[in-house]
Amino acid sequence: TKKTLKALIGGNWKANGTVENVKSWVEVLNKAGTFSPNSEVVIAAPSIHLQYVKSIIRPDIAISAQDVSFKRGYGAFTGELTGEILADSGIKWALTGHSERRVGFGYPGETNAVVGQKTKNGIDTGLSVIACIGEQLSDRQSGSTMVVVSAQLEAIKASLSIPDWSKVVLAYEPVWAIGTGVTASPEQAQETHAEIRAWLSKNVSPEVANSTRIIYGGSATAANAGDLYAKPDINGFLVGGASLKPEFVKIINSTL
Length: 256
Description:
The chain is α/β, with parallel strands linked by helices. Helices cover about 40% and strands about 15% of the residues. It has helices at about 20-30, 50-55, 85-90, 100-105, 110-125, 135-140, 145-160, 185-205, 205-210, 225-230, 245-250; strands at about 5-10, 40-45, 60-65, 95, 130-135, 170, 215, 235-240.
C-alpha cells in the first residue's frame, strides 16, 4: 500500500535480551535482504545494548532509547539517561510515554505532564520521538477512549511548538490489546487513528495532522499487519513481542 507518509516500523525489545540473544536478533535483520522501500525501521533496545546494537546493525535501521529523562543535560540524575547523553552517543530516537511506564512497575507511573516534558526534552536535544498514547480496557469499555487519549495528547501539545511536531511519531497503544493476544480489529484501530488525526487537525493544525505518522501499537503480527496497514490512518507499527521473532521482517515488509 503506497501512502504519502513513509511507514514507521518500530521494534520495542522492552527489557529483553541477553548479549547472545541481541546478537542473534540483529543477525536475523542483517540477513533479511532488502526491506520494503515504504518502511523506515527503528529498534528500541534496552539502554545497555544501545551502543552494541548500533555498532553491528545494518545502516538502514535506526536505534532508539526506550525512554528519555525528565531532566536535561549532564548532572546529578543517578540512573537517568538525558537527551543530551543519548544524542551525544549517536542515538537518533527515543520512545516516551510507553503504556508500561505510564502504569508504573509496582509504583506510580508517569503522568501525562511528565510524558509531555520528556517528549519536549528528546526533541530539544535533537532526537526524534515516538510518543505513546492509548487507553486501558476499562476506558474502552466505558466508551471513554478519546477522553483519555485527548488528555494525553493535550499534555504533549502543551510541551511542543508547532515545528516540534515534525520530529514526533504518535504510537497508539490500546493497552487492552498488548500482550493479551487480543488485537483491536483493523476497523477499531482505524477509527481511533482517525479520531487522533482529527484531534491534531482541530487542536494543533491541519498541516501537522496530515504530516504526522500515527502508528499502531497493539499486538501487531505478521498475520494481521497487512490488513491493519491497509487502513488509511495507520502509518506503521510499534511492535513488542513479535519484534523478537523472525516474523518482524514480515511486518516491516507488510507495507509493500
